[in-house]
Amino acid sequence: MINTYDIDLKAVLRDNPELRIERDDYDFTVTTHFGSKIAKEETLSRYSTFGGKGKPAHLYIHVPLCSYICHYCNYVKTRYSGKDETILDRWTNALLTESKAYLRLAPWLCEARIESVYFGGGTAALLHERHLRQLMEHLRGNYSLTEDCEITLEGNPDNFDREKIDAAIGLGYNRFSVGIQSLDDKVLEFVGRGHNAETAVKAIEQLVRTSYPVNIDYIVGLPYQTVDSVAKEVEDLVALGTHQVSIYRLRNADRVGLGLDIGQRSAWNQLQTSHAIAPGVFPTLEETYSIRGVLMRLLLERGYRPAPAAWWSREGVYANGICATPRNKWQNMDSMIAFGPGAYGWLTGGREDILQTHNPTNISDYLHRVEDLKEIPLSHGRYVSGREAVATALGFLFKACQKMDVSKIRARFHIDILNEEPYKEVLFTLVNKGFLHFPLEGDCFIPTLAGEALHEEIVHIYFNQWLGALNLPQNQQR
């Protein structure tokens, strides 16, 4: 990565108007929405015969429970009061049932090389020790987890007390991710978080003491944020010894209204609350990226590097500079096996094509399929090949914020992105705009810090739309 600490992101936006995407239109995911949408039966048929034996893969477990629902959240989830443990039993059994059904369908699954596991949601850390033990024992008994498998437990600050942390470590969890989003109580209350800054700091302190890597999720673009307030908060996170700070821009687009295959409407989408708030509460797009630029410089000066984009890790925390979850998902684009409502995954195995899987986003529908119909709760799939698969792979590499090796792309897809169109034009346009660097006599494209800061917009516009769909950005059309 090319490191230039001082980048005027407002100027970058001004010079690249196609990347100006306002708060209420902003929602990006790593999945692709082109390719052929295929029915459940065909998807499962392709799934069953996939050659994943012995190949690396990532496993994602989606627990759709939250003790509170943030106003901006559009992930698949439902509220859990914490009083009825049978609900936790039910979801643990549902996830186990889904996994067992896939293991019967596709025997290769038990012999795929699982290098990373992520328990997310929702709030996976709401599960009690016995539920986490059931899931872990199932994974270890039925899948081939590598000896150094990275196993992450995600939760909120109020989930990580000393007892829960010790229990998780005892079960084999070796990485933690905590959604704090802000250290400003005024901001936390406004967006509907169920914890305060003091609780967040205490949880971070306890997790950092374990010596296992700790990631903190932090959102920019929230109400009342300023450059100064956010800079102080991130300074505090660095001082606490946080290993990784993942910086997300506030996503307030209506995923359902956009016709996407994932997610639900947030409270702000449903009630249009954000539109009714007096001007000045939310930072503008320019202010949001001024905040992003200050955080970038601050983290660089404190010894953090983005690997992948937006996931800023302290140097030396990860042996290869990037933790296993994004290494599998984006850098190597290994297969991602995903269970739970709204979960989406993909099968790749180093092939030229991609099979995406999508579970229903309706929680009742998911449970009905698993519990009543006793079937695999798959909604549909997407088959991606040819230029669209190359566009997806390049977008994943850009998200990984690692070198985009020309020879590896040639070996996998049998194309020469240096000389073949439309790949050459897209990549060198990004070089000319300062989002990629291509060294003289080089054989790789290297993301720049400007590219990192606007990586989701760039992936959406240049890789998905321009390259994947051959839909040229308006200001690039001839």
What this model shows, in words?
The protein has 478 residues and is α/β, with parallel strands linked by helices. It folds into two domains: 1-32 and 402-478, no CATH class; 36-328, Aldolase class I (TIM Barrel, Alpha-Beta Barrel). It contains 18 helices and 18 strands. The protein has helices spanning 9-15, 40-48, 85-105, 129-142, 162-171, 185-191, 197-208, 227-239, 267-271, 273-276, 285-301, 324-331, 363-372, 386-400, 406-413, 423-432, 449-453, 455-468, and strands at residues 36-38, 56-63, 65-66, 78-79, 113-121, 144-155, 175-181, 214-220, 244-249, 304-306, 311-314, 335-339, 344-347, 354-358, 380-384, 404-405, 436-437, 444-447. α4 runs parallel beside α5 and α14 runs antiparallel to α18. It is globular, with a radius of gyration of 21 Å. The mean pLDDT is 92.
